[in-house]
Design a protein that fits this description.
The structure holds two protein chains of two kinds.
Chain A lengths: L2 E3 L4 E5 L4 E3 L2 E3 L4 E8 L6 E6 L5 E3 L5 E5 L4 E6 L8 E9 L6 E2 L3 E6 L1
Parallel strand pairs in A: 2-12
Antiparallel strand pairs in A: 1-4, 3-9, 5-6, 5-10, 7-8, 8-9, 10-11, 10-12
Chain B lengths: L4 E3 L2 E4 L5 E6 L6 E8 L3 E9 L2 E5 L6 E5 L5 E5 L8 E8 L11 E2 L3 E5 L1
Parallel strand pairs in B: 2-11
Antiparallel strand pairs in B: 1-3, 3-8, 4-5, 4-9, 5-6, 7-8, 9-10, 9-11
Classes of the chains: A mainly beta, B mainly beta.
Amino acid sequence: AQSVSQHNHHVILSEAASLELGCNYSYGGTVNLFWYVQYPGQHLQLLLKYFSGDPLVKGIKGFEAEFIKSKFSFNLRKPSVQWSDTAEYFCAVNARNTDKLIFGTGTRLQVFP
Amino acid sequence: KAGVTQTPRYLIKTRGQQVTLSCSPISGHRSVSWYQQTPGQGLQFLFEYFSETQRNKGNFPGRFSGRQFSNSRSEMNVSTLELGDSALYLCASSDQLAGGPRETQYFGPGTRLLVL
Protein backbone atom coordinates (compact mmCIF):
# COMPACT_ATOMS: atom_id res chain seq x y z
CA ALA A 1 0.00 0.00 0.00
CA GLN A 2 1.09 3.54 -0.65
CA SER A 3 2.22 5.64 2.28
CA VAL A 4 3.86 9.00 2.87
CA SER A 5 6.10 9.87 5.81
CA GLN A 6 6.89 13.36 6.98
CA HIS A 7 9.67 13.22 9.50
CA ASN A 8 9.20 16.56 11.19
CA HIS A 9 5.91 17.11 12.97
CA HIS A 10 6.69 20.55 14.35
CA VAL A 11 9.45 22.89 13.24
CA ILE A 12 10.24 26.23 14.86
CA LEU A 13 12.52 28.68 13.08
CA SER A 14 13.52 32.30 13.23
CA GLU A 15 13.04 34.52 10.22
CA ALA A 16 15.80 34.21 7.61
CA ALA A 17 16.66 30.67 8.69
CA SER A 18 16.79 27.96 6.04
CA LEU A 19 14.09 25.30 5.88
CA GLU A 20 14.10 21.71 4.80
CA LEU A 21 11.10 19.45 5.40
CA GLY A 22 11.50 15.78 4.76
CA CYS A 23 9.07 13.61 2.81
CA ASN A 24 9.45 9.95 1.89
CA TYR A 25 6.93 7.82 0.10
CA SER A 26 6.36 4.16 -0.39
CA TYR A 27 5.15 3.04 -3.79
CA GLY A 28 6.70 0.87 -6.44
CA GLY A 29 5.28 2.53 -9.53
CA THR A 30 5.37 5.92 -11.19
CA VAL A 31 4.00 8.71 -9.04
CA ASN A 32 3.11 12.36 -9.03
CA LEU A 33 4.37 14.29 -6.00
CA PHE A 34 2.96 17.40 -4.35
CA TRP A 35 3.50 19.79 -1.51
CA TYR A 36 0.42 21.58 -0.24
CA VAL A 37 0.31 24.33 2.39
CA GLN A 38 -2.49 25.22 4.77
CA TYR A 39 -2.17 28.71 6.28
CA PRO A 40 -4.09 29.34 9.51
CA GLY A 41 -7.78 29.57 8.74
CA GLN A 42 -7.28 29.00 5.03
CA HIS A 43 -7.76 26.08 2.70
CA LEU A 44 -5.13 23.79 1.23
CA GLN A 45 -3.11 25.45 -1.50
CA LEU A 46 -0.67 23.89 -3.93
CA LEU A 47 2.94 24.92 -3.32
CA LEU A 48 4.56 22.85 -6.02
CA LYS A 49 4.32 19.57 -7.88
CA TYR A 50 6.45 17.06 -9.70
CA PHE A 51 5.05 15.01 -12.57
CA SER A 52 8.14 14.32 -14.69
CA GLY A 53 11.27 15.94 -16.08
CA ASP A 54 13.69 18.05 -14.04
CA PRO A 55 13.68 16.58 -10.50
CA LEU A 56 14.26 20.03 -9.00
CA VAL A 57 10.97 21.86 -9.05
CA LYS A 58 10.28 25.41 -8.05
CA GLY A 59 7.01 26.52 -6.56
CA ILE A 60 5.39 29.66 -5.27
CA LYS A 61 6.81 31.95 -2.59
CA GLY A 62 10.42 30.82 -3.08
CA PHE A 63 9.86 27.16 -2.23
CA GLU A 64 11.53 24.34 -4.11
CA ALA A 65 11.64 20.57 -3.82
CA GLU A 66 13.89 17.86 -5.15
CA PHE A 67 12.67 14.46 -6.24
CA ILE A 68 15.28 11.76 -5.55
CA LYS A 69 13.88 8.59 -7.04
CA SER A 70 16.49 6.28 -5.50
CA LYS A 71 15.60 7.53 -2.03
CA PHE A 72 11.83 7.78 -2.63
CA SER A 73 12.12 11.32 -1.29
CA PHE A 74 10.64 14.70 -2.16
CA ASN A 75 12.03 17.17 0.36
CA LEU A 76 10.81 20.75 0.52
CA ARG A 77 13.30 23.60 0.88
CA LYS A 78 13.38 27.34 1.25
CA PRO A 79 16.64 29.25 1.76
CA SER A 80 15.19 31.99 3.95
CA VAL A 81 11.82 31.70 5.70
CA GLN A 82 9.53 34.55 6.59
CA TRP A 83 7.01 34.98 9.39
CA SER A 84 4.27 34.63 6.76
CA ASP A 85 5.43 31.06 6.05
CA THR A 86 3.91 29.95 9.34
CA ALA A 87 1.54 27.19 8.28
CA GLU A 88 1.07 23.45 8.05
CA TYR A 89 2.79 21.71 5.15
CA PHE A 90 1.60 18.46 3.62
CA CYS A 91 3.44 16.18 1.27
CA ALA A 92 1.21 14.06 -0.98
CA VAL A 93 1.60 11.43 -3.66
CA ASN A 94 -0.67 9.77 -6.16
CA ALA A 95 -0.08 6.92 -8.50
CA ARG A 96 -0.12 7.95 -12.14
CA ASN A 97 -3.39 6.15 -12.83
CA THR A 98 -5.45 7.58 -9.97
CA ASP A 99 -6.56 10.87 -8.46
CA LYS A 100 -6.38 9.36 -4.99
CA LEU A 101 -3.94 11.52 -3.06
CA ILE A 102 -2.10 9.95 -0.14
CA PHE A 103 -1.06 12.60 2.34
CA GLY A 104 1.63 12.68 4.97
CA THR A 105 0.68 13.63 8.50
CA GLY A 106 1.80 17.21 7.97
CA THR A 107 4.51 19.43 9.42
CA ARG A 108 3.56 22.45 11.45
CA LEU A 109 6.01 25.29 10.81
CA GLN A 110 6.23 28.25 13.13
CA VAL A 111 8.43 31.15 12.15
CA PHE A 112 9.25 33.80 14.73
CA PRO A 113 10.32 37.33 13.80
CA LYS B 1 -12.10 31.40 -12.46
CA ALA B 2 -13.85 30.92 -9.17
CA GLY B 3 -12.33 28.29 -6.93
CA VAL B 4 -13.89 25.17 -5.50
CA THR B 5 -16.86 26.04 -3.32
CA GLN B 6 -18.35 23.96 -0.55
CA THR B 7 -21.59 24.35 1.34
CA PRO B 8 -22.34 24.60 4.12
CA ARG B 9 -19.13 25.78 5.74
CA TYR B 10 -20.13 24.68 9.21
CA LEU B 11 -22.59 22.10 10.42
CA ILE B 12 -23.63 20.71 13.79
CA LYS B 13 -25.48 17.41 13.93
CA THR B 14 -26.30 14.82 16.57
CA ARG B 15 -25.44 11.15 16.59
CA GLY B 16 -27.68 9.04 14.39
CA GLN B 17 -28.60 11.86 12.04
CA GLN B 18 -27.52 12.03 8.43
CA VAL B 19 -25.85 14.88 6.59
CA THR B 20 -25.33 15.94 2.98
CA LEU B 21 -22.42 18.13 1.96
CA SER B 22 -22.15 19.87 -1.39
CA CYS B 23 -19.21 20.74 -3.61
CA SER B 24 -19.05 22.84 -6.77
CA PRO B 25 -15.82 22.28 -8.70
CA ILE B 26 -13.88 24.87 -10.64
CA SER B 27 -15.67 25.59 -13.90
CA GLY B 28 -14.65 23.03 -16.51
CA HIS B 29 -13.29 20.52 -14.01
CA ARG B 30 -14.90 17.11 -14.28
CA SER B 31 -13.07 15.21 -11.57
CA VAL B 32 -14.12 15.68 -7.94
CA SER B 33 -12.54 14.02 -4.92
CA TRP B 34 -13.48 14.09 -1.25
CA TYR B 35 -11.18 13.92 1.77
CA GLN B 36 -11.68 13.81 5.51
CA GLN B 37 -9.28 15.80 7.71
CA THR B 38 -9.01 15.11 11.44
CA PRO B 39 -6.28 15.91 13.96
CA GLY B 40 -5.73 12.23 14.68
CA GLN B 41 -5.86 10.68 11.21
CA GLY B 42 -4.80 13.61 9.05
CA LEU B 43 -6.08 13.81 5.49
CA GLN B 44 -7.72 10.66 4.22
CA PHE B 45 -9.19 9.98 0.82
CA LEU B 46 -12.90 9.20 0.72
CA PHE B 47 -13.81 8.85 -2.97
CA GLU B 48 -13.37 10.28 -6.43
CA TYR B 49 -15.92 10.96 -9.15
CA PHE B 50 -15.46 11.60 -12.82
CA SER B 51 -18.32 12.18 -15.24
CA GLU B 52 -20.90 11.00 -12.70
CA THR B 53 -19.03 7.72 -12.04
CA GLN B 54 -17.20 6.76 -8.89
CA ARG B 55 -13.67 5.86 -9.97
CA ASN B 56 -11.99 5.26 -6.68
CA LYS B 57 -12.99 4.72 -3.08
CA GLY B 58 -11.07 4.95 0.18
CA ASN B 59 -11.33 2.76 3.25
CA PHE B 60 -14.45 4.22 4.82
CA PRO B 61 -17.61 2.40 5.89
CA GLY B 62 -20.66 2.25 3.67
CA ARG B 63 -22.25 5.06 5.70
CA PHE B 64 -20.16 7.39 3.58
CA SER B 65 -21.47 7.78 0.06
CA GLY B 66 -21.37 10.31 -2.71
CA ARG B 67 -22.57 11.18 -6.13
CA GLN B 68 -21.81 13.52 -8.97
CA PHE B 69 -24.25 15.32 -11.19
CA SER B 70 -24.07 16.03 -14.91
CA ASN B 71 -22.80 19.56 -14.19
CA SER B 72 -19.90 18.01 -12.20
CA ARG B 73 -21.24 19.24 -8.86
CA SER B 74 -20.88 16.60 -6.21
CA GLU B 75 -22.55 15.70 -2.96
CA MET B 76 -21.33 13.59 -0.10
CA ASN B 77 -23.68 11.91 2.33
CA VAL B 78 -22.97 10.43 5.73
CA SER B 79 -25.74 8.42 7.34
CA THR B 80 -26.11 7.40 10.98
CA LEU B 81 -23.55 9.91 12.18
CA GLU B 82 -21.07 8.92 14.87
CA LEU B 83 -19.02 11.16 17.13
CA GLY B 84 -15.89 10.14 15.24
CA ASP B 85 -17.27 11.61 12.03
CA SER B 86 -16.54 15.09 13.36
CA ALA B 87 -14.01 16.43 10.90
CA LEU B 88 -13.25 18.90 8.15
CA TYR B 89 -14.50 17.48 4.87
CA LEU B 90 -12.58 18.73 1.87
CA CYS B 91 -13.53 18.62 -1.75
CA ALA B 92 -10.99 18.88 -4.56
CA SER B 93 -11.41 19.20 -8.30
CA SER B 94 -9.12 18.70 -11.26
CA ASP B 95 -9.40 19.12 -15.00
CA GLN B 96 -8.24 15.64 -15.82
CA LEU B 97 -9.58 14.48 -19.16
CA ALA B 98 -11.03 11.07 -19.83
CA GLY B 99 -8.08 8.78 -20.47
CA GLY B 100 -5.64 11.64 -20.02
CA PRO B 101 -2.89 12.14 -17.46
CA ARG B 102 -3.81 13.00 -13.90
CA GLU B 103 -3.78 16.69 -13.20
CA THR B 104 -3.38 18.81 -10.09
CA GLN B 105 -6.22 18.84 -7.59
CA TYR B 106 -7.43 22.16 -6.20
CA PHE B 107 -9.09 22.18 -2.81
CA GLY B 108 -12.11 23.99 -1.45
CA PRO B 109 -12.34 25.57 2.01
CA GLY B 110 -14.07 22.54 3.47
CA THR B 111 -17.16 21.87 5.54
CA ARG B 112 -16.51 21.57 9.24
CA LEU B 113 -18.86 18.98 10.70
CA LEU B 114 -19.37 18.62 14.43
CA VAL B 115 -21.30 15.61 15.68
CA LEU B 116 -22.66 15.87 19.22
